[in-house]
Amino acid sequence: MTKLKNDRFLRALRREAVDRTPVWIMRQAGRYLPEYREIRKQAGSFMNLCTNPELACEVTMQPLRRFDLDAAILFSDILTIPDAMGLGLYFSEGEGPKFKRTVRSASDVAALPRPDPGDSLAYVVNAVSRIHRELDNTIPLIGFSGSPWTLATYMVEGGPSKSYSKVKGLMYEQPSTAHALLSKLADSVTDYLNAQIEAGAQAVQIFDSWGGILSHDKYIPFSLDYMQRIVSGLNAGPDGEQVPVILFSKGCNGHLEAMADSGCQALGIDWTLSLNEARSRVGERVAIQGNLDPAVLQASPDVIRRQVQAALESFGRGHGHVFNLGHGITPDVKPEHLGALVEAVAELSPAFHDRA
Amino acid sequence: MTKLKNDRFLRALRREAVDRTPVWIMRQAGRYLPEYREIRKQAGSFMNLCTNPELACEVTMQPLRRFDLDAAILFSDILTIPDAMGLGLYFSEGEGPKFKRTVRSASDVAALPRPDPGDSLAYVVNAVSRIHRELDNTIPLIGFSGSPWTLATYMVEGGPSKSYSKVKGLMYEQPSTAHALLSKLADSVTDYLNAQIEAGAQAVQIFDSWGGILSHDKYIPFSLDYMQRIVSGLNAGPDGEQVPVILFSKGCNGHLEAMADSGCQALGIDWTLSLNEARSRVGERVAIQGNLDPAVLQASPDVIRRQVQAALESFGRGHGHVFNLGHGITPDVKPEHLGALVEAVAELSPAFHDRA
After folding, report:
1. E strands of chain B, at which residues?
2. Numbers of helices and strands, H then E, in chain A
3. Considering only CB atoms, which chain A residues are within 8 Å of B214?
4. Which residues are registered as beta bridge partners of B92?
5. Using an 8 Å Cβ cutoff, are A110 and A171 in contact?
6. In a 10 Å sphere around its CB, with 0-12 CB exposed, 13-18 middle and 19+ buried, how is residue B280 labelled?
7. Which residues touch A98 (CB under 8 Å, ≥6 apart)?
């Protein structure tokens, strides 16, 4: 293992001292970049882009050429596992991801295979290897997966939903079928993330995009418990060190303490909680990633800079903070505005670290 | 004033003793009822239904003929005020409410009139009078409005949004324009609710459907402060008594204590917080309304009954609880399932009250 030139992100996840707060941005490789839209057009469809390791690698690298980011993140989709289970993922313009087949009964669940990442998900593993090689030990690469609960919502509903009536109906009416599905998904996600780690991912993030729709008494048994099982099933990296895991349960601020006890190294939080409150609630257990409102990037560079300063002050001095938005960057953002954010973090954050 | 035959709902809002927990359901007059769909078809469009006091009264009464509910709620839309301001509300199938004109600058805000409820909103006031007469002092009538922030999101975006980039962009970049808009809306909502109270509404609910998209430091100055201004500007009812106000800020559980100090009588909460925790956080300040996950109604009557019991136990013994869902009932619910919920509340809740 050659040492990383910039390991600020991994150090922050381990709550070690850093010279400045590391920064990366959810969906940093995405539609707000004209060079992304160009490649996306060439690919013909979003899935063609995801399944072509060369193109997936290219779009992963694009934001790194523009901005001084402290981590790269694999370009892929959260729904690759259900697709590899045979549900037939497709994207219909303006309606988001959809599945040709849904999962709504115990026999549907029993029929689902546990995908072999070396086979039906090889395109993702190959993309990870290629990106890792291309990064050439400059900055770490983040792998990722959707959480079991989040994957289950799409598999049962057949696509995005307003009310999630079908997946929640299954949970209330046939809890054992819901648990069988989540259990199979947890095993599959574990295999998938282990394959990404083996191929070179130096940290992984679990996106629990729909954990926040669960009622107070259902979030832990139907979402967090399965993420915890994944965390405990992950292998060490090629250097023998534990690979840090970031849990991002959108809209689950009420469960922060339980999440911090899941064995993960960091929690991603959205902008509805202050960094200060998040830090005081999780204490020394985990690092915190976030949490600027992506809409701040609609404003002018001075406003962005003031909001970055406010976020840094909210977290306060010391380690364990990874700067990010509280959700993905939106397609309507001007790339220079993200540039203003990244520069502001680089310039303003050393004052919050002893190693400055 | 003739006394109400059933004042359980108003007593619970005032945290007075009751024989059993009162229950009503958000969107109880709605698409899950075949008789509603029939009238909606006759009306031709949703707006035709809202603007016709006779039909609006008829659909308000429909759920009361099926279920033993403790309150009626005016059938209307939250966007009547921006429509009365001249923005041109319309509904496009599958896309939700839209406006022909948007509000995006200081001059757009300055040009907005403060609607006279007796004029451009007379159809709502007339519907309230008619429903109040039709109810004949059996149960109380709830009037309502959208919150200033929630109305502003639609007015600036021009319709529903995923990221709310435009309205939040305005808030971050031109906060004084955003405040001017919210201030005008707060005055208009106050006039509107006072007209509903004068016409017979015995309680009012403010729907802050999009308060939860605001960051931790923006919710109070951009949403709650304006709702508080409305609360303090409301007139007493015809009997000289204060008309109870319910604030329902979806996804704002982090701000419950501040909401409880706003001068309102009750807080509506969603299912992501337990009734027990909500009650212990607000103490004796306000009543709590909620909070069953609407998806529970997808399950069978026994499951519904067990979930009702669990909610009653979570709130515990004593007064100050109004049973409701944590959000509106969805169109895919079987009416008999709502019947099971209402019956379960009637049968199981007396055990939690001393006057049983």
Report:
1. 72-73, 89-92, 96-99, 141-146, 203-208, 245-249, 266-268, 287-292, 321-325
2. 16, 9
3. 272
4. B96
5. no
6. exposed
7. A89, A90, A91, A92, A158, A159
Q: Which residue has the tokens 């534990």?
A: A242
Radius of gyration of chain A (CA): 19
Q: How many Cβ atoms sit within 10 Å of the Cβ of residue B71?
A: 26
Q: Which pLDDT score is estimated for B356?
A: 47
Query: Tokens 């005008």 identify what position?
Result: B184
Measuring CA to CA, which residue among B260, B257, B166, B247 is closest to residue B211?
B247
Residue ranges in B220-334 assigned as alpha helix (H)? 225-232, 256-260, 275-282, 301-315
Spatial separation of the C-alpha atoms in residues B29 and B196, rounded to whole Å: 18
Residue-level pLDDT at B96? 87
Distance CA A195, CA A198 (A): 5
C-alpha–C-alpha distance, residues A346 and A8, integer Å: 12
Cβ partners under 8 Å of residue B339, min gap 6 = B66, B67
Alpha carbon B93 to its chain's center: 23
How many other C-beta atoms lie within 10 A of the C-beta of residue B5?
A: 10
pLDDT of residue B354: 86
E strands along A24-140, which residues? 72-73, 89-92, 96-99
* Confidence check: pLDDT of A1 > 80: no
The per-type count for chain B, helices as H runs and strands as E runs, is 16, 9
CB contact under 8 A, B173 and A214: no
Per-residue pLDDT in tens (0 to 9) along chain B, 356 residues: 568 999 999 999 999 999 999 999 999 999 999 999 999 999 999 999 999 999 999 999 999 999 999 999 999 999 999 999 999 999 887 778 999 999 999 999 999 999 999 999 999 999 999 999 999 999 999 999 999 999 999 999 999 999 999 999 999 999 999 999 999 999 999 999 999 999 999 999 999 999 999 999 999 999 999 999 999 999 999 989 999 999 999 999 999 999 999 999 999 999 999 999 999 999 999 999 999 999 999 999 999 999 999 999 999 999 999 999 999 999 999 999 999 999 999 999 999 998 64
Q: Judging by DSSP bridges, how do beta strands A266-268 and A287-292 pair with one another?
A: parallel
The residue type of A219 is Y
Residue A258 makes CB contacts below 8 A (sequence gap 6+) with: A220, A224
Q: Nearest by CB to B273, which of A216, A298, A299?
A: A216
Contacts of A215 in chain B (CB under 8 A): 271-272, 293, 326
- How many other C-beta atoms lie within 10 A of the C-beta of residue A96? 11
Residues belonging to chain B with any Cβ–Cβ distance to chain A shorter than 8 Å: 163-166, 168-169, 171-173, 212, 214-219, 251, 253-254, 271-274, 277, 293-296, 298-300, 303, 307, 310, 326, 330, 332
Question: Which tokens go with B330?
Answer: 């969805």
